[in-house]
Amino acid sequence: MSKVSNRTKIATALVGALALAGSNLVVADPLSDVQKADARIHSDAAASQKKVDKFYDQAQDMAFEYGQVADTRESTKSYNDYVAGLVADQEATMKLIQEDINGVDKLRQGVVPLMFKMVDALEQFVALDLPFNKEVREARIERLRETLNTANVTLAEKYRLILDAYNIEREYGSKLNVETGKLQLDSKEILVDFINFGRVGYYAQSLDQKSAWMFNPETKAWDKLEDGYLRNITKAIRQARGQGAPDMFALPIPAAEAAQ
Predict the structure, then answer these.
(1) Alpha carbon 190 to chain centroid distance?
(2) Are the beta carbons of 194 and 184 closer than 8 angstroms?
(3) What backbone phi and psi angles, to 5 degrees, belong to 218?
(4) Backbone torsions φ then ψ of 191, nearest 5 degrees
(5) pTM of this prediction?
């Protein structure tokens, strides 16, 4: 009886141990599944976080790019507005220039006849004036006429040359000028010194200083001067050439009526 009891106890212990072992195995499987599920959740959460971080970074990059594009758009708009203003100003300037160009023909139509009239008036003036430097002055007028009929000289240059000629004639009126030339008297040519006091008087003296004459604007002839004027004529010629100190001298002048 006691043997059976021991065996029974051993069997009972074995059954209990097996039962306990079976119980542990049954409990262990759900826990493992939970742990695996939790690990998967953490893994999925990490992956999702990476995606969120990626999308966030992309959104930040896109926001930055948008800001740059917006700034570029504003800069471009400002530049385009500036260029548009320049273009508008250039178009206005071009319009004014075109109007000036359109007016050139009208200006030319008025200026060209005026220049011919100015040359004609200058020629008449020289013809009526005292005959000093006559050949030089007449040659200058002839060159002006040739220039007016030359196509390769600009209108502005032609006008400038005419004004220069007028200026030279104006300066003659305030200068004491002397030159050596030939005086035609009674079919004779006499070498003389010509001297003019502006347009007040025009005189001639033979190179031997023994004879002197005054031009008469009324008769267009040379009137012989008295010998008492020879000394003063000589003094005036020397002063005109810078060979004598400035000094007073007396010479006859044509009457005012005759000078007109």
Answers:
(1) 58
(2) no
(3) -75, -45
(4) -75, 125
(5) 0.57
